[in-house]
Amino acid sequence: MDIDTGAKKIKSIVNQLLKNQGIVLVGIAGGTSSGKTYLARKLNYSIISIDDYYKGRNNMVNDNYDHPHALELNLLKKHLLLLKQNKSIKKPIYDFTTHLRKGYETFRPSKVIVVEGIFALSNIFNAIFDVKVFVDAPRKTRLARRIERDERERGRIGNSVIEMFNSTVEPMHIKYVLPAKEHADIVIRN
Q: Can you tell me the distance from the alpha carbon of 166 to that of 140, in angstroms, rounded to the nearest whole number?
């Protein structure tokens, strides 16, 4: 299904779940530049970007931002469980231009929280999300969008983006991100 149809379906499921529970968590995963953030914004709920849980360049191995160990997924899990209990969290804030965490901000629970990022459907979160979504896009499309975004928002140059995509992004996508698609309740083609 496409993004618009998928968004309507997600909202319908969320509305049904809200009849029986106080807080609904929606996980949106997919490859780099597949449209996860676009979909999350389109849903118009509170959003947590998994990108804010990056450890930062000083705490990573080989600058591989697409390996699960690049992020504090256990901290995110702890935060999601607290939010489900209607408790506020101190969410990290990550800066892509410096590749460092630049602080924390208070994030308060709301009736619906969307968590978007490449690892949103990792096994560690399977029992936490009420709705699991995978946004799928072809390699060529993801690469073109990644080049455009990284040049515009992150101050990177096209050739370095292509090199990173080929050396780490796509191999990690195949190894870690794509297999999580099997956990999705909804698959959106974008």
A: 11
Q: Does domain 3-189 have CATH number 3.40.50.300?
A: yes
What is the per-residue DSSP string for 81-95? HHHHTT--EEEEEEE
Closest CA to 70 of 83, 52, 82: 52
Q: What is the largest CA-CA distance in the chain?
A: 50
Tell me 54's DSSP state: B
* DSSP structure class, residue 124: G
Run of H or E including 73? helix 73-84
What radius of gyration, in Å, describes the C-alpha atoms of the chain? 16
Residue 155 binned pLDDT confidence (cut-offs 50, 70, 90): low
